[in-house]
């Protein structure tokens, strides 16, 4: 044995440190190209390069604690830890087959054999036994190896259901046991076996719940296996003939799914299910038609806005900006305070975003408003006694405004008042009491409910419609009393 001073590697040149290693005479040193750690290669190795067993098995004298692994065919060498981390990363991103780590630097096209991955990730038998709980039966363990397991390590669906009460409870119990008593490398090894089976056999499809491979036969193979006895595990599953109307059932977790669409669609074929997904829903099409007919787009964000009632001052629920609903734009609005004026339609509005401040000002002005309210009560009471509750504004507060020859406006009585006049003053004390009380209290309540300006009082609303040429047409509620059903995701309530 001779003592030699060697640098730690090209990545550690800045540290100016050296390590004293005892290197046997006639041996050569190697550096892992990933972590730049040193190890030596023995000249008397008898490693089987076809299966990728670790080097140094003949002498067991390693200069470094890490083992050296050589990949067959390309003969690139890496330490055990780096190569294992490379395999775990490839499995985590589901990149199968696992490629040589030297592909990026040396354009290597070789892949790692399964035996090498097993040597890196799979634990020994004595380690497996130490991980298992003492009260766990050997029959409860499950493995994902490609070889057919023994009959003692399998559980049928019936036995699992009888033990745990349901197949879902059995699947969750087995999943918890595998996570609690299995190392991280073993979990990656089991995941590699599952991905490798899916990569090698194109007839396998993963379960959408437990990701276990399920074999789906073609129609001809299914007819041949129609009388096959039911198996007890997915790894040797041979499903009977299944029509396109029947979903696939995983025997590991009992989950039913479709191998094409994922979601099970019992009673429908894949073509019928696809047509149902593509075909628009009737309610959605009706909602879109109503939106185009009764809504106006926001002049800021183009969101459709539906006005049910109130003034024409609209606050968009999407962007919180205001606009004039009658004009359909915000370009003619001016005023930065609570009062907004539309120069096109000559209307004044109270900005509903400041409605709280406006009501606070009304409460502060209540002492000044109280004398006028008392005067209002006296006048309304006198008019109610004189008209016996038949004056239109005292009956219901509604005045119908009609156009005569499209030029002159005329105020007419509402239908209840006309009915009373036709019934020769058929007046009831209950109606008169309701009329007087409504006219005494409704204006005071309406002052707080509405903006307090005459243009903002509740009137007969108009809904915008679009003709075939795209022009806006207004229709009153009396002509269009059908309340549309709108989609809440596309239209929100507006303050008016």
Question: Which features characterize this protein?
Answer:
single chain, 496 residues, alpha+beta, 3-stranded antiparallel beta sheet, two-stranded antiparallel ribbon, 15 helices, 21 strands, 33% helix, 15% strand, elongated, disordered C terminus
Task: Outline the structure in words.
It is a single chain. With 496 residues, the chain is of the alpha+beta class. Helices cover 33% and strands 15% of the residues. The chain has helices at residues 80-92, 103-106, 114-121, 125-131, 157-164, 167-180, 184-200, 219-224, 270-278, 282-294, 355-364, 366-387, 392-395, 415-422, 429-449, and strands at 2-7, 18-23, 28-31, 38-41, 68-70, 77-79, 204-206, 213-215, 248-249, 256-257, 296-297, 304-305, 313-315, 322-324, 333-334, 339-342, 347-350, 400-404, 408-412, 462-466, 472-476. The strands form 10 sheets. A 3-stranded antiparallel β-sheet has the order 15-16-17, with no helix packed on it.
The total count of strands amounts to 21
Detail the poorly predicted runs. Answer: 1-27, 42-65, 124-164, 219-245, 391-409, 448-496
Q: How many helices does DSSP assign? A: 15
Largest sheet: 3 strands, antiparallel
Binned strand content: 15-25%
Morphology = elongated
Oligomer: single chain
Gyration radius, in Å: 42 Å
> Please, how many domains?
4
Sheet/helix structural class = alpha+beta
- How far the N terminus sits from the C terminus, by CA atoms, comes to 95 Å
Arrangement of strands in the largest sheet:
15-16-17
Helix content: 25-40%
**Whole-number average pLDDT?**
61
